[in-house]
């Protein structure tokens, strides 16, 4: 059914709480990775990607905090998210946004695969015509 205004506000607060909590956990893990890097250890590709994502999230947090701290500015947040969809840290994304991103990536990969397949078929035709 339809949610009350109070329930929507509680859901939003929970969403932000969980987002900040996940960001805190990512920050702690990233700090350990930086410590390992400073002591000469090598990170795996997965760890490197996580470290980069966490650093990017921390840089994205600065403009996001302005919306949270300044009174009544959170009403402008949806407008800015429409203009700058990558402004939110990754820990604040909803499941629907994550699925939408995955669908876009998958469609791009499918288009690339289709292009490559057509290119290879065209090259095969040329080679066949040249040798035949």
TrEMBL record:
Top-rank taxon: Eukaryota
Xref: InterPro entries: LETM1-like_RBD, LETM1/MDM38-like
Protein name: LETM1 protein
Membrane topology, as annotated: Single-pass membrane protein
Species the sequence originates in: Melanocharis versteri
GO molecular function: ribosome binding
Taxonomic lineage: Eukaryota, Metazoa, Chordata, Craniata, Vertebrata
Any one GO BP annotation for this protein: intracellular monoatomic cation homeostasis
Example of a GO cellular component annotation carried by this entry: mitochondrial inner membrane
Pfam families listed in its UniProt record: LETM1_RBD
